[in-house]
Amino acid sequence: MKSLKKLFTVMLLIFGLLLLVGCGEEDNKTYKVLLPSGTPLMAVGGLLDDAEFDFKVVNGQDPLISGFTSAEYDMIIAPINLGTKFIRIACLTTPFIAVNVQKMYALQSIGKGKEALFLGIVRQGVFAIPSLIILTHFVGAIGVIAAPLISDGLTFVVTTILYKITYT
Known about the structure:
Layout: H1 2-21, E1 31-36, H2 39-43, E2 53-58, H3 62-69, E3 75-76, H4 80-109, H5 113-139, H6 142-167
Parallel strand pairs: 1-2, 1-3
Helix pairs in contact: 4-5, 4-6, 5-6
């Protein structure tokens, strides 16, 4: 028990030192900010002339969604309804992911590695990539967020069928 406390103390000390090392100041850094026109633009209007920020003002939600999926911007000021869409889709996707992964691990644990590999390939290669391409073509950038819901939902059907075949 004492060795566990010592290990935990050493790990905590190392983590704390790493945090302190990462707290260096960057001089003259310009922050890239993406924001929509309208009320959010009025909210930051006093900062538009500040040399510390480089603002890009966009119209519509598609450029904002694209900004979320890229690492180009330091900050994105988005309306709350856009974040609500993201979180709703993520909440719908999570149960499918949990069940799919659980069934894949169960198949692996009983020696059915080929079936588990098949399900992984179906999930990522057969369903995820095509749904990403199709959804972004038809619904724009929101398709990037919705693609996992579709691919994991379809994988859930295949996983359930294969799971039942394996166990009956």
